[in-house]
Amino acid sequence: MDNEQKAQDVVRCDVCDTPVPLLHCDFCQIYLCKACVGGHMLDLSKKHQVVPFQERRSSLNYPYCSEHVKEQCKHFCQQCDISLCVYCITNGNHQNHNPVDICSILKRKKIEIQEDIEELDESFSPKYKEIVNNITLQKTDLNKNSEKLTSAIDKHGEVWHREIDTIIQKLKSDLDEVDAKHLALLNKQEDEITRTISEITQSIADLKKLLDSNDVSRVSAYKSRIAEFRRLPPKLTVSLPNFTPQKINPEQLYQQFGSLSAISITTEEHGYTMETSEAGSSPLKPLLDEPRIISTIQTQYRGLGNGLLSVTCHNDEEIWTCGDNNKMMSLYKLKGEVMKSIQTNSKNDPWDIAVTRTGDLVYSDYNARTVNIVNNTQKQTVIRLRGWKPLNICSTSSDNLLIVIYSDNGKETKVVCYSGSTETQSIQFNDKGQPLYSSCGNYKYISENRNLDICVSDRGARAVVVVNQAGKLRFTYTGPPITPKGTFSPLGISTDSQSRILTADYNNKRIHILDQDGQFLRYIDNCRLQCPWGVCVDTRDNLVVAEHYTGEVKKIKYIM
Fold first, then answer.
1. DSSP state of 349
2. Which ranges constitute the DSSP H helices of 213-265?
3. What is the signed CA dihedral for 355, 359, 361, 362, rounded to 10 degrees?
4. Which pLDDT value is given to residue 445?
5. Are the beta carbons of 501 and 513 closer than 8 angstroms?
6. pLDDT value at position 336?
7. Predicted local distance difference test score (pLDDT) of residue 2
8. Contact, 89 vs 75, CB < 8 A?
9. How does DSSP classify residue 57?
10. Of 538, 513, 516, residue with least CA distance to 469
11. Inter-helix orientation angle 125-212/250-257, to 10°
12. Residue 366 backbone dihedrals phi, psi, to 5 degrees
């Protein structure tokens, strides 16, 4: 290692660049030599904690309270998911929440961080590198296959050219043969007529001599050939050959020449698996005995006719919302702040909203019969229906759209899948030809499960209807056996990382949790829910519930 490299590796004072400083300010996260400590401590705009170099980063840098700005937060409310200062605790707002020492949260988080570092370094990083290598191999195979097919196409083209040349030569040969036959006939008749003309010429000369002759014997012996010459030769009409080219149909020609096999690109959600030891495997996250609310925000929607309808996670800290009699869709931070609001193109109320995998907002416009996508503030209509109206929507793992649509005559409901503006699948009937979904009740929320099942909460049928990826009915859930008939009122529906299905039961003020096969697991009914309507699940498996009449959005922790 050269001297320049050695010099770069030496820790230096961040103020004067003196090598090997003896001190460190844990609050400012800078190295200090003895000469610079005094000047650094004179900066009274911030707090300082100077410790020996060997004890650097040993002091905790507590956050400052957002309400009591000069106070540091040394406690944490797990129920509200926020840090607290001593005044926050004493004011009574968190009295029944049992705040804990923030150090215990820090210790737990550092253990979690260390575990994540180990898993990322030992499992995920090698696996993703393996996947990249696999893609490189696929690209190599793609190039080799393309070269092979290009050569095969060229060779087949040469065969076609030879065949075409042969056909051309055959047609020319046939033409020469036809011309020869016609020419022989014409030459024969021409010879015969020329001979007759010669005979007529000779006869005229002979008759002129005979006319001047007084030889009675010769004149008396004359026999007229007029009758012979009066019989003109038959008229020979030769029809000239024509060439009638066949009309070239490029599509048929393309098919006759050959074709490439259909391109097949499949996306397997679980195509790559993470190899882990028994001890390091990730078990099914268990449900909490007592789900708890970790945050609550009040939205602009509230009351009869102006209620909150749909909520969808933009990320773990932000949610999109829409409601009754409101043409605006609003993005909220989970602390209650409105980030932005977007108006529909038609100024109609949006029926439902969803967020794509790339983070764009999608909304259905029932009255305009359209589905629209919003990228930043640019709105584009991607689907326009005829004879049908779009209801509820969701974005799939492959970034397609699943849409529940309702016929104009009010007699049919079906689920359609769109890739961009192209319909790729329609789901309407079971194996017996009976409708899968009711034609009554216009709210039918939809979600795709991790196993690619399609889950629809059919309020009109008072059921959750689940079909597989091919559209075949898997099961219908109408509530656990103890549910009184006709009281189950499913609305919002979502799924989590464990393939559990969660649906809001509006009438009974609770959330039903099912496994992926439709088995009832438990209710969430201890979180003071009022008229739960829309639901979504964030990436941390926290449930977000929109309450219709109160306009509140509650984030609920329900798994370990």
1. P
2. 216-220, 226-230, 250-257
3. -60
4. 97
5. yes
6. 84
7. 44
8. yes
9. T
10. 516
11. 110
12. -60, -50
Degrees, nearest 5: CA angle 186-192-194: 100
Phi, psi of 491, deg, nearest 5: -125, -105
Say what the alpha-carbon torsion angle 61, 62, 67, 69 is, to the nearest 10 degrees: -40
The phi, psi pair for 287, rounded to 5°, reads -80, 145
Q: Report the relative pairing of strands 82-84 and 75-77 from DSSP bridges.
A: antiparallel
- Chain centroid offset of residue 7 CA: 52
Looking at residue 7, what is its pLDDT? 45
By the 10 Å C-beta count (0-12 exposed, 13-18 middle, 19+ buried), 254 is classed as exposed
Strands 413-419 and 75-77 come out as unpaired
Note the pLDDT of residue 106.
81
Question: What is the model's pLDDT at position 44?
Answer: 85
Output the pLDDT for position 269: 52
DSSP, collapsed to helix, strand or coil, labels residue 216 as helix
Beta bridge partners of 463: 458
Short-list 327, 344, 341, 335, CA closest to 379: 344
Residues of the chain with pLDDT under 50: 1-7, 276-282
Q: What are the start-end ranges of the E strands in 324-462? A: 328-333, 338-343, 352-355, 361-365, 370-375, 378-384, 388-395, 401-407, 413-419, 422-427, 444-448, 454-458
Fold entry, domain 287-559: Neuraminidase (2.120.10)
Residue 5 has a pLDDT of 44
Chain mean position to CA 372: 14
Beta bridge partners of 401: 395, 418
What is the spatial distance between Cα 396 and Cα 495, in angstroms, rounded to a whole number? 12
